[in-house]
Design goal:
- By secondary structure, the chain is an alpha/beta fold.
- The protein has a domain at 9-37 and 97-203: P-loop containing nucleotide triphosphate hydrolases (Rossmann fold, 3-Layer(aba) Sandwich), CATH 3.40.50.
- 45% of the residues lie in helices and 20% in strands.
- It is built from 8 helices and 9 strands.
- The chain has helices spanning 20-30, 60-68, 87-95, 106-116, 130-140, 145-159, 174-189, 198-210, and strands spanning 9-13, 34-36, 39-41, 55-57, 72-78, 81-86, 99-102, 120-126, 167-170.
- The strands form 2 sheets. It has a 5-stranded parallel sheet with strand order 2-7-1-8-9, with helices on both faces. A 4-stranded mixed sheet has the order 4-3-6-5.
- Helix 1 packs across helix 7 (174-189).
- The chain is globular, with a radius of gyration of 20 Å.
- The two termini are 22 Å apart.
Length: 212
């Protein structure tokens, strides 16, 4: 029997190049119930960006109002622009049984913990070796050697926070890592608290016993 279910907030984090984006793409391709969390931002919209798909574009005054009124589950300033996760949009999707994938760093994850811990499951992705991490960054051919060195330096800081996540996966094999994240999500979906009509179902079973 399928139960009405509350959605899961799935946070996947990793150092740059460890495989978070590849795992996320595979999850989206395999499961149409997963939605990507769409942030609000004060950054100007780029020509190829779509309102409501990539971001919700707002001005700084509106952002600060949302922040002051508790309408953001997490927020941050990056390169002079503000970003945040709108509480109402997340709640709407969770209530509809949709799972939401979050691509945020450890600071954003800690803010989500304070506001939505019961709805969350978090996964941190590690590379098998730093040699392999460097090779992946180089194969992407997106960054200069100086940028790669900075990403590796940042990776050390990010890895300090692995213990703040529910699960840690060493991404030796992409297919296996995707399978493990899917298993984690499947388990979270089956948690008792998420199966909303389970209490009434149990009461019905008990009534059936009483009527024997």
């Amino acid at each position: 029997m399928d139960f009405q279910r509350r959605g899961v907030m799935l946070v996947i984090a990793s150092p740059s190049g460890a495989g978070k984006s590849s795992i996320s793409r595979a999850l989206f391709d395999a499961d149409d119930n997963i939605r990507l969390s769409v942030s609000v931002t004060t950054r100007a919209r780029r020509t190829d960006e779509v309102e409501g798909k990539h971001y919700y574009f707002i001005d700084e005054a509106q952002f600060r109002r949302m922040q002051a009124d508790g309408e953001l589950l997490e927020s941050a300033e990056v390169h002079g622009n503000f970003y945040g996760t709108p509480r109402a949009k997340v709640e709407e999707q969770l209530a509809a049984g949709k799972d939401i994938l979050f691509d945020i760093d450890y600071q954003g994850t800690l803010q989500l913990y304070r506001n939505s811990r019961k709805d969350m499951v978090t996964v941190f992705i590690l590379p098998p070796t730093i040699k392999e991490l460097r090779a992946r960054l180089e194969r992407r051919a997106q960054d200069s050697s100086g940028t790669i060195e900075k990403r590796l330096s940042n990776a050390r800081i990010e890895m300090d926070h692995f213990s703040e996540y529910d699960y840690v996966i060493v991404n030796q094999d992409l297919g296996q890592s995707v399978s493990r994240v899917r298993s984690i999500l499947d388990s979270a979906r089956l948690e008792r608290e998420r199966q909303l009509n389970l209490p009434s179902f149990v009461k019905d079973l008990q009534s059936q016993i009483d009527s024997l």
